[in-house]
Structure formats: structure tokens, C-alpha cells
């Protein structure tokens, strides 16, 4: 189906929507996350409210900090 | 066998393979530090201790019934990312840049561990460099009727 032609306001709104999506995606990429993989490579996202999530994040942060100290 | 990867060299080998790897350590089955990248020994021991804690936390994490314990873990945190992989014999963990591609980093971890365990080196290659005079003729046909 042919896309409906949009006026200047519609185009501006489309641009703003695209930028908002990009910002949301960048924020999501910066959020802490834990992914666990089984032996077949199947990935499972550990939810923030799941048991163990906080521990994995805390240990990982300490590992990154330790390397940052070594680099500085 | 010459060129065989040793446990002492394994972490450094991972950092050579991946430009996004900042530091890596290898632990043996007993949890002892078997090798590290260019970290001073105290920091390497500290990183090794944390890698052990990481898998302990992973094993305590909730998982659906019937699902095996995870073999690899990826944690994205502020300032970087941690990837770790384990086999019955080894744990290899790396702190990487946040921009690292997860799939590549996890594949590098598996590949280096496989090289350590099997002795079969990872096949790497470099792009060919040709000077301007010896560039091959493009195989693409010229479709511009004006130039024909």
C-alpha cells in the first residue's frame, strides 16, 4: 500500500518520533542487564527482580571498577 | 607441541583476539588463578576471586525447571561489560568495553577455551594488501552503454 503523503507538520512529528525512539534505545542499551547462556547458546535475560540479579550486577561492577583502577 | 596455547597465555590470547577486551583471567577447575592478561598479580588474583563469585551468583540465580546451569554469562554494567565462560576444566572471564559485540565476545571466549583444551589453534586471517599497480581488474561488468 502506498504511504500517505504527509505535510510539514507530519514530517516534523515523524522526525521527532524517530529521535525519541533513538534516545529510548540508547537509554535501554545503557541500562544494566544480565544474560545467561546455556551450553547450546540459548540466551535468557535475567529479570531485575529475579533471584541473583543484584549479586551478578554487583560482582560485575566490582570487576569493571578493578580494571578501571588498573587502567588509570 | 610448539605454539600450543598454555593456561598462562590463554587470557592474553583472548585480549589479542578481541580489541574490546580490557583484561581477562583464567581459573582452573579448583578455582585457582591459572593465567591473566597484563594485570599485576594482586589485581589478577582479585579479578579471579570476583570471577568465582560471579559464577556462584549465576548458579544461585533463578532458572526455569529442567534448565541446565548457564555456561556463559554476560553482564552489562556502568563503565563496561563482563563476559565469562566455563567448561568442566576452566573459567575464562573478561572485562570488556561496553561497545563490545556480545556475540563476538562470547564466540572468542569459546574459541580460546577450545584452543586451550584441544590444542587446535584458532584460524585467523588478515586482509590482503595490494598496491595500486597490482590491483586486479574488477570482475564487475561495465553496464554503462555510454562507456561501452
Q: Quick recap of the structure?
A:
The complex is a heterodimer of chains A (72) and B (148). Chain A is α+β, with helices and mostly antiparallel strands and 72 residues long.
Task: Walk me through what this model shows.
The complex is a heterodimer of chains A (72) and B (148). Chain A is of the alpha+beta class and 72 residues long. Chain A contains 2 helices and 2 strands. Chain A has helices spanning 8-30, 53-71, and strands at 33-37, 43-46. A two-stranded antiparallel sheet of chain A has the order 1-2. Chain A is elongated, with a radius of gyration of 20 Å. The relative contact order of chain A is 0.07. The mean pLDDT of chain A is 88. Chain B has helices at 7-17, 41-60, 102-118, and strands at residues 21-28, 33-36, 72-77, 80-86, 90-96. In chain B, helix 1 (7-17) runs antiparallel to helix 3. Chain B has a 5-stranded antiparallel β-sheet with strand order 2-1-5-4-3, sandwiched between helices. Chain B contains 3 helices and 5 strands, in the order H-E-E-H-E-E-E-H. Chain B is elongated. Chain B is an alpha+beta fold. The model of chain B has no long low-confidence stretch (mean pLDDT 87). Helices cover 32% and strands 22% of the residues of chain B. Chain A binds chain B through residues 30-39, 44, 46, 50-53, 55-57, 59-71, and chain B through 22-23, 39-40, 43, 46-47, 50-51, 53-54, 57-58, 60-63, 67-68, 70-82, 93, 95, 98, 102, 106.
Structural topology:
The complex is a heterodimer of chains A (72) and B (148).
Chain A: H1 8-30, E1 33-37, E2 43-46, H2 53-71
Antiparallel strand pairs in A: 1-2
Chain B: H1 7-17, E1 21-28, E2 33-36, H2 41-60, E3 72-77, E4 80-86, E5 90-96, H3 102-118
Antiparallel strand pairs in B: 1-2, 1-5, 3-4, 4-5
Helix pairs in contact in B: 1-3
Radius of gyration of chain B: 21 Å
Q: What number is the mean pLDDT of chain A?
A: 88
Structural class of chain B: alpha+beta
- The overall strand count of chain B is 5
Across the major sheet of chain A, the strand order is 1-2
Termini gap of chain B: 58 Å
Q: How many E strands of chain A?
A: 2
Give the helices and strands of chain A as they follow along the chain.
HEEH
Provide the helix percentage of chain A. Answer: 55-70%
Order of helix and strand elements from N to C terminus of chain B: HEEHEEEH
* Multimeric organization: heterodimer
Amino acid at each position: 500500500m502506498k504511504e500517505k503523503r504527509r505535510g510539514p507538520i507530519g514530517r516534523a512529528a515523524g522526525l521527532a518520533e524517530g529521535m525519541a525512539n533513538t534516545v529510548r534505545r540508547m537509554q535501554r542499551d545503557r541500562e544494566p542487564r544480565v544474560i545467561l547462556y546455556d551450553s547450546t547458546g540459548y540466551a535468557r535475560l535475567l529479570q531485575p527482580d529475579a533471584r541473583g540479579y543484584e549479586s551478578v550486577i554487583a560482582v560485575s561492577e566490582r570487576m569493571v571498577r578493578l580494571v578501571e583502577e588498573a587502567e588509570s | 607441541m610448539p605454539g600450543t596455547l598454555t593456561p598462562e597465555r590463554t587470557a592474553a590470547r583472548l585480549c589479542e583476539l578481541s580489541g574490546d577486551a580490557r583484561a581477562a583471567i583464567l581459573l582452573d577447575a579448583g578455582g585457582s588463578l591459572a593465567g591473566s592478561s597484563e594485570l599485576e598479580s594482586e589485581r589478577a588474583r582479585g579479578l579471579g576471586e570476583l570471577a568465582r563469585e560471579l559464577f556462584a551468583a549465576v548458579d544461585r540465580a533463578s532458572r526455569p525447571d529442567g534448565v541446565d546451569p548457564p555456561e556463559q554469562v554476560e553482564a552489562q554494567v556502568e563503565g563496561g561489560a563482563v563476559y565469562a565462560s566455563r567448561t568442566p576444566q576452566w573459567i575464562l572471564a573478561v572485562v570488556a568495553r561496553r561497545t563490545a559485540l556480545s556475540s563476538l565476545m562470547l564466540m572468542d571466549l569459546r574459541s580460546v577455551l577450545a584452543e586451550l583444551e584441544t590444542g587446535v589453534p584458532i584460524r585467523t586471517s588478515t586482509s590482503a594488501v595490494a598496491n595500486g599497480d597490482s590491483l586486479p581488474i574488477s570482475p564487475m561488468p561495465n553496464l554503462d552503454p555510454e562507456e561501452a
